[in-house]
Specification:
CATH class of the largest domain: Alpha Beta
Oligomer: single chain
Number of domains: 2
Shape: globular
Strand content: 15-25%
Order of helices and strands: HEHEHEHEEHEHEHEHEHHEHHHEEEE
Helix content: 25-40%
Largest sheet: 7 strands, mixed
Number of strands: 14
Number of helices: 13
Radius of gyration: 21 Å
Structural class: alpha/beta
Distance between the termini: 34 Å
């Protein structure tokens, strides 16, 4: 989803080249021999700015591989996920997917992490008519290019991920509804649309914008932004963030002693105990966030996924990005099983476009562009634990708390 600046001209050109840098080759061809595994290639940010979610996504793919193979494989063949490290770099991710296709001869592809990496990577897949299911890349612009093979395996694109939260805020009694709002954000094709979608709804309803700013991915000091937010004193604060900047921003707010009545932050709060350890459990209380998945959800296969994850990587709640990667592989798997083959991947894409697929995130469906057509869950940190609070049908907590209960 979410970070690094986008250099479109350079990457568009790079996407047309079959470059060979980045990662290490595992060799081997795909073939059609049923004794050979179906080889599925992915490039992930295992190092660099996106390394935390990138490693979680790799874990999700590994859990899927283990569970599928334990159940007899796919089309009667074992599956093998071949992962390269793109180092969180847009040019490297292009080179990696070209190498996976042309040199490592993988049969299929799975997506990388973040909108900024999936934008150029999906161009490589489209040019090669390869199905491309991405686990984390909700920027609306990804689906404005007329591509036929890309699908986002979450419930909604970035501009709609805050819809349920907006409905909650605007449904509050007039005495409780915020009157002013602030929107600091990372300059990012995922974070910005989330906040823009919220801002449009709030301003239309009369919630006045008192502060807005964008900052670069290189920014690590948030003292000035925190002081500006404190001076503006918004009733509700919406922050567009990834993990590191999300943690640093909350630390800066704590440093200047500012706690809004309502606080919504993208991405960072979904990192489970990594988030609470990063900012301190006491600073998590009341924080809202949009999330695709919950470990306690009663969706088909979810309990088995969590159990297998714990067996492979130790006890604890999997990161959301691991679940999203697992779900992306589930979507690809469903298409292959329904079509009965992998040779015509346009046919696989056509099947996904016209069907709903059950995943551990719940049922997913798409429009003709590959954009998902659903609603995100809304989480909130309460008493040191992350809970699902909206919609009520999926809630793990029936109460909603304020960020600053004493305000």
């Amino acid at each position: 989803m979410r970070r690094l600046r986008w250099c479109a001209p350079a990457l568009a050109a790079a996407a047309l080249l079959a470059a060979g840098c980045g990662g290490s080759d595992n060799g081997g061809g795909s073939g059609s021999d049923s004794s050979k595994p179906i080889r599925i290639g992915a490039s992930l940010p295992l190092t660099g700015d996106f390394s935390e979610p990138g490693k979680a996504a790799q874990q999700g793919y590994q859990v899927w591989q283990k569970m599928v193979n334990d159940q007899g494989g796919l089309l009667g063949r074992k599956v093998q996920v071949v992962v390269r490290d793109d180092a969180s770099d847009q040019n490297t991710v292009v080179a990696d997917y070209n190498a996976l296709i042309s040199r490592q001869k993988v049969d299929m592809l799975l997506g990388t992490f973040s909108s900024l990496l999936n934008l150029p990577a999906s161009t490589v897949a489209e040019r090669n008519r390869k199905l491309y299911v991405e686990p984390a890349g909700g920027a609306p612009e990804i689906f404005d290019r007329g591509y036929k093979h890309i699908f986002f395996a979450q419930q909604a694109t970035a501009d709609h991920q805050g819809d349920v939260f907006a409905q909650y805020i605007l449904g509050l009694p007039p005495s409780e509804r915020p009157k002013t709002a602030a929107y600091p954000s990372l300059d990012d094709p995922f974070a910005l649309p989330v906040l823009q979608g919220l801002r449009e709804k709030f301003e239309k309803a009369g919630i006045k914008t008192v502060y807005t700013t964008k900052y670069a991915s290189e920014n690590t000091n948030f003292d000035s932004i925190a002081n500006a937010v404190k001076a503006a004193n918004p009733d509700i604060l919406m922050h567009g963030a990834t993990f590191a900047d999300g943690v640093n921003f909350v630390r800066a707010l704590d440093k200047v002693g500012y706690k809004p009545k309502y606080f919504f932050q993208t991405s960072a709060p979904s990192f489970a105990d990594q988030y609470s350890k990063g900012i301190g459990v006491e600073n998590t209380e009341g924080t809202f966030y949009a999330v695709s998945w919950d470990a306690k959800a009663q969706t088909p296969g979810n309990a088995a996924f969590v159990k297998q994850f714990n067996q492979m990587f130790g006890a604890g709640e999997p990161a959301e990005d691991a679940a999203d990667a697992f779900a992306a592989a589930q979507v690809m798997q469903a298409a292959v099983k329904a079509v009965g083959g992998i040779d015509d991947q346009t046919k696989l894409a056509d099947w996904i476009r016209s069907h709903s697929v059950n995943t551990i995130l719940g049922p997913l469906r798409w429009d003709k562009t590959g954009a998902p057509q659903g609603q995100f869950l809304i989480g909130q940190w309460q008493s040191g634990k992350s809970q699902i609070v909206l919609p009520k049908a999926a809630a793990t907590s029936q109460t909603i708390v304020k960020k600053n209960a004493g305000a």
